[in-house]
Task: inverse folding
């Protein structure tokens, strides 16, 4: 693969295989490629080590071939689902990695807030659009989100995922989902005790998360919102805030 | 709907909507129709109230119209996923219920051990075949299981689900899945502290279940079994052994 500086991906971490802990692919063995850098700064971000520019020195520039080499080594050379996350992976040049990996049978899911549309979204197997609710303190650019859905086109499965902390977040999710009635919806309770960027395995309030999960189920059932899925972050229930599992 | 005694379904309980706690439809709002009676008697059965003939008097004979009326009342008349479980629902006459419900937009999933094949499996949206591993003390009839897959035909999604307690169960699941390489696989750790049939909300060992879940993830990852999904029983994590949630 010819490689140029323009192809270089800023990689925060590559780990796995482990099971996907959340959303549409929950429970599925997955290798995670987490890119560094984000155009958002959600107040409850659980991946600040891949977002805060103070950690920029830890984000290794890697060509798509080097990333694929590492994924291949982790999966024992067997095709596996690769989850591209961040930060916001949509601000990285991932088209070459996806094309090369797909040629070897790997499948690719990408999770983004939907603020930046890329033409290579069309080559994904799954595009998870996770617009950020009011509790994040971010503003949603609805035009950009719609451009992401359009960039994906008919190829990949496209779903909406919402982190929900409170009633205002839930109301936001309902309204956002109503803008895209064809897209399946995944709701998950937020982790209100996320790890700090240098604080692997920080203390976590599992009971608080389960309480919010129960509330979310009750809320969805009461509203007869049958198109929604309600799921926890399994990795959080299994491993707490520990990183790289 | 014309109704005869032959149409009558022995119903243990109808409840919901709540989220599906396990397997391929995890997190999805669902109304559960649990039928009474089973041709198996797994030693760790978590639904003895629908299996043990001592509770037969609690299994109300209902025609398909009456069942659908109840489902409709629970879902507020809105089409929702209906999960047919048991006991072994395959020994009940469910074809009429499925046909009538589908005509109104309801979708149907059925979960069975795969010991009895029915032609109306072809009308399901999802058929979950859950053959029982050695820890159940049951023997698998592989011919019957294959007949279930064939009865389903190309219409419904068909998946395998295995409850796994130990290494022998895991080995069984691997071998069983190898017989049906086209079917997606769902593994879940068993609940070794199931409720007694009259013991709603019995004490449960959540830490033990989570420990078995971690072990199962490690096992699947070590074997590079990337076609498998590993999922807990969410309802058990959320509500313990409580019934009807």
Result:
């Amino acid at each position: 693969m010819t490689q140029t500086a323009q192809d270089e991906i800023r990689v925060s971490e590559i780990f796995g295989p482990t099971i996907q802990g959340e959303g549409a692919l929950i429970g599925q063995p997955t290798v995670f490629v987490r890119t560094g850098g984000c155009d958002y700064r959600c107040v409850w971000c659980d991946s600040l080590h891949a977002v805060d520019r103070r950690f920029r020195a830890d984000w290794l520039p890697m060509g798509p071939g080097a990333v694929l080499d590492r994924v291949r080594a982790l999966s024992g050379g067997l095709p596996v689902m690769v989850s591209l996350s961040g930060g916001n992976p949509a601000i990285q040049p991932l088209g070459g990695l996806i094309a090369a990996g797909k040629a070897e049978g790997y499948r690719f899911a990408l999770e983004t807030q939907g603020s930046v549309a890329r033409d290579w979204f069309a080559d994904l197997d799954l595009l998870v659009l996770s617009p950020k609710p009011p509790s994040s303190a971010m503003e949603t650019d609805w035009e950009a989100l719609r451009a992401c859905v359009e960039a994906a086109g008919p190829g990949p499965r496209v779903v909406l995922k919402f982190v929900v902390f409170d009633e205002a977040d839930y109301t936001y999710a309902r309204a956002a989902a109503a803008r895209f009635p064809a897209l399946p919806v995944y709701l998950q309770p937020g982790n209100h005790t996320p790890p700090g960027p240098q604080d692997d395995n920080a203390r976590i309030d599992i009971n608080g998360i389960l309480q919010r999960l129960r509330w979310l189920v009750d809320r969805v059932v009461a509203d007869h919102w049958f198109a929604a899925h309600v799921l926890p972050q399994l990795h959080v229930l299994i491993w707490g805030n520990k990183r790289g599992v």
